[in-house]
Amino acid sequence: MKNTKGSFLPSKALDYFLQLTETMNYTQAAQILGISQPALTQQIKKLERSVGAPLFYNVGKKLHLSDAGYTLLNATHQIYETVSNATDQIQRSTQVNQGTIDIGILSSIENDVFNDFVINYYRKHPDVHISFHVLTRKELWERLEDNQIDLGIMYLPDSSIKNWKPYDSKTIIDDELIYLHHNEKYKNLSKISLSKTLKENWVTYPQDYYLSEIINDFYKKRMLDSPNGVAHFTKSSSIYRFASEIELSTALPASYVEANNRGENQLYTASFEPKIEFQLSFVFRKGKEKIPRIDNLLEEFENYLSEKDYVSRLTELNKME
User: Do the record's keywords include Transmembrane helix (predicted)?
Assistant: First the structure.
């Protein structure tokens, strides 16, 4: 990109600028970008020389965007949006049975059903190349933003995303969290109050994972402490096994519990009162669903879930290997 003075705004510097606007902290932004703080500072200064105005200013130790910074931020978002839209328009002209589809899936989601679907899909459409990327929530959103993946498979609603305008979603399943425990006193309860669940130690997902965050937010909004997590795992299967063998409490998606809470190590279960509900969804930039091969994949996945009894498919979605 070139300004009126003839100097260029390099895309790398714009990427660095965007990251700094997210953290508003040079040290954190440099760590995320994997560069040194002086290198980041140098790129921002280069950008400021190109536009001819400071992009940030400090009040005490706090960093703020200047008026020029806000102007460049809006312009950068418009540029990236234009490039993404152009890419999508080009892709819409491609055939249903050709091209590539990149899918990002949240690392905490059991992905057996998606793998099974892709195998069946490939048999029908061998010229459509599908790539699966197991990602953290932050990585997933970043790659959607940068148009590096076409579809994200994740949990919603996600309050960490402030700007939903460029995105759309398609629900895969409506789900809820189920409380699992070993407490004989509560074994006959079909519903359990939040306060009662705080009497036991928990095994949970890591604190920065979506399901941990919605649990903590749910308790916080009701003026309660968060459950006391004494162990943390990224996969539902690991959490379930640990809770079973060490006799800890936990909370897992109902679809997973229905498929796996059986046999000798079966745990007592109860719905939270009130319920903790969420959706497993496809998320994509608006317009992606109009690309023929992606529209076809979404339609065939919906048909795939309908091939058998729907409830059976839901339980298979989170079935342990």
Answer: no
The H-assigned helical ranges of 161-268 are 194-197, 210-221, 236-246, 254-260
Write down the number of H helices and E strands in the chain.
Answer: 12, 12
Among 131, 321, 142, 155, smallest CA distance to 252 is for 155
Q: What is the pLDDT of residues 190-234, one digit of tens each?
A: 999 999 999 999 999 998 899 999 999 999 999 999 999 999 998
Helix (H) or strand (E) holding 156: strand 151-156
**Residue among 68, 62, 69 at smallest CA distance from 21:** 69
User: d(Cα 207, Cα 232) in Å, to the nearest integer?
Assistant: 8
At residue 95, does pLDDT exceed 90? no
Of 159 and 272, more confident: 272
Backbone angles phi, psi at 82, to 5 degrees: -65, -45
What secondary structure does DSSP assign to 57-106, as a single string? EEETTEEEE-HHHHHHHHHHHHHHHHHHHHHHHHHHTS-TTSEEEEEEEE
Are 112 and 320 a contacting pair, CB within 8 Å? no
Residue of 13, 24, 32 whose CA lies nearest to 57? 24
Q: Kindly report the length of the chain.
A: 321
Nearest to 106 by CA among 75, 74, 149: 149
Segment 110-135, tens digit of pLDDT:
777 888 888 889 999 998 999 989 99
In whole angstroms, give the CA distance from residue 79 to residue 73.
10
Report whether 29 contacts 22 (CB < 8 A): yes
Note whether 300 and 121 are within 8 A (CB): yes
**Cβ(144)–Cβ(167) under 8 Å?**
yes
- pLDDT tens for 32-42 read 888 899 989 99
CA 234 vs. chain centroid, Å, equals 14
